[in-house]
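_Backbone structure tokens_
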Amino acid sequence: MLPSKKLFNLTFAVIATAGVTFISGVGVGPLPPLGNLLNPGTGVWTMARDAQLPTTRNMHIPGLQHPVIVSFASNGGAYIKAQSNHDLFFTIGYLQAKFRLFQMDLMRRQGEGLLSQIVGKEALPSDEFEDSLGISRTAATEWLDTPVNSPAYHALSAFSQGVNARITQDERTGNLPYMFKLLNYKPTLWTPIDSLVIQGDMTQTLDLSTTPIAYALLVHSLGYQRTMDFFPVLPIDKQHPYDLGPYPKAPLTKIVQSPFVTKSEYLAATALGHEIEQVPPQLLHQFSDSNNWAVSGSRTASGKPLMAGDPHLNQTIPSIWYQITASSPSYHFSGVSIPGIPIILIGHNQDISWSLTDVQNQSTYFYEERTSAKHPGQYYFRGKWINMETINYTIPVKGKASVHWPVELTVQGPILTDHGATLAMDWMGNIPSPDMQSLLGVVKSTNYAQFKSALSLWHSPTQNFVYADRYGNIGMISAGYYPIVNASKPWLPMPGTGQDDIVGSIPYASIPQVYDPKSGFVFSANQREVGPNYPYYIGTSADFFSNGYRADEIYRVLSKGHHLTVKDMENLQNNVRDDLAGRMVPKLLQALQTTSLTGNEAVADSTLSHWNDEMNVNSVGATLWWTFWTSYLQDTFGPWWKADHVPVNVDPNLAIGPSQTSLDEDLEAWTQNDPNNRAFTPPVGAHRSAPQVMRLAFSQTVQKLSKELGPRVSTWTWGRIHARHFPALSQIPQLGYGPRPSGGDEWTVDAADGGAISTAGPSWRFVMNWANGKGYGVYPGGQSENPLSPWYEDQISAWWNGQYYPIWSQQHISHEASTVVWNINP
């Protein structure tokens, strides 16, 4: 019998929700003919049949070479035992398509610029942007460059065959996932290029930014010097890089002292900012993402390493992850894969374990091309006029005529706007790279030397790969392509005439890395990986390098840790202590000692004086702290933004608020070490100091919360103004989870990114214990995308409560009484 909630959701979704939307509010367009939609044999109602949990049975799937055994744990985790490498990747493709086919199709359509074909004209800005960006062009080149006899070629080919075996089966039985029926279309057969497009989607989410555009707008408004005072190349507060040096010798990038932004560059940046505003926000890198660390046996109770990782990504249902454990003649691994990609990204094999965080270095550059009406279709580069390459796209639009979309390319990259100035974008994600080959090498590695060698092939997105092994070693390497730019200000749009081009990359031996450090631990949380003496430019404090507060908390806990256990790793991943609050609240309390407090102000002051800096859902101190810091930022920087007309309406990344890197770092450092900094005094007005602005912000905080939450301070709990929400990919509200009052904030290790209603955070929590070779993991969601399946959102409760599932060995799972087994034959 179907759960009543699920039955209601299904009925409501199909009959009442004629305006189904998805992918950030994009409209679905006309519903399919109701006769087809409600056909009892092949219509949307088949989702109830498809939602039933698998049962033990024998199966035949054409395309396999040998029998395969698939065992399912109680939470849907798939355990694959294959007799050939081909059958391993074939089965992974089949299972991902069985449980996540619509998600896979949606992701490839996003990267290939084909969303409008299934949802209508509202998706055109996304499709046009993706066609201009060129993920599909890069993916096609990568596939052509993949050697026919390479492991990557065989894995991608076998995976595609497995996906297509499931698509063919679903079409033959009328059992395609319900969203295909609701949107009235069928998926095309899968190709290796589709998998590489999805790989490009993830690179885009983690590496693509418009930072130079934001800098151009800031410099035009605030002037260069003030912009660099507020958003310096290097952060001004104390941080904890994981690679402490010594660093290699290399020429330091010369810093130009007084550049300016021309009117044409400003107009182009403004136009591009408005265009980007129309693109779904998840297509650009917005948040600092993820934590990972490893602890050597010198600091653990067992004497063996512990490793942990929790990537912070957009949290949706279904999740971005699909969990698998697998074995074949050449592969033995366990972890999480991305639907559409045939290998795990995070996990372990029999000898090593690894996890990822984003490096956050600058990977996107903008160039102003010199064009002339006298040379139409050309640009000036290295002393001569060169023809632009034009690629013409035809974008099919559901219910409308197809749209012609020409994309012009220069040597730097695609032209994104020609309003005011002609701006081209050079993005590292557009460099064809053998990342799939690199991942397969990582999965097969048995020691750090092999691990490091495999990562030498990795280009983008640049990632901090943490490492631990059963022999007792730990390490970290920030693998990827780090551009060396022949320019003095690469954080601004640069001339496209050739003199400021990328001239190479940082040598692999010189990228951030560490192996078996004396401290006994390594960690990354998107902080700048190296100290101020690192000789290469890798980005500014505004390139989404984290402000370092999560890293500081991890450092604080691990540096004091001895006899650490798996439970300690889990507790740290679920830690909601705000390290910045621990530094700033004492300063606030000190400032308030010199003023007279009455009523709720006195109660709030007393509450903060007894607060433990933890952003718990029922904490009043958390609410006071976050509201105060938001006001403190606005009261300090707001007058400058207003006086100089910073165009926040053009680029929301320019808005003043918590996690507007590097304003938090500035304010922290000035409050502690420079309380009379010029920034505290408005452009027009009397001199102010940090304590004065703090008192003003505190008064505003109490007034604001009294008005919004009522007169009793004791009721101002964090959960009243902060929640987590896991929206459904279909964007049918009833099929998501939340919003639900939640602890954490953007700087706690258990991060809640995205504001008052967080939709980004830990997407997978993983702990590896090399004392017994066992892993533990959980993600907020479930293995199935079918809303009626018991595996749709079954792991959210465990994730929410800080609980983990053991990741069993194949031998153990085969002896569990509850295990479901598929015996699959060719």
Q: What stands out?
A: Residues 1-31 have pLDDT under 50 and may be disordered. Residues 10 and 397 are 27 Å apart (CA to CA). Residues 85-112 form the longest helix (28 residues). The chain has 24 helices and 34 strands.
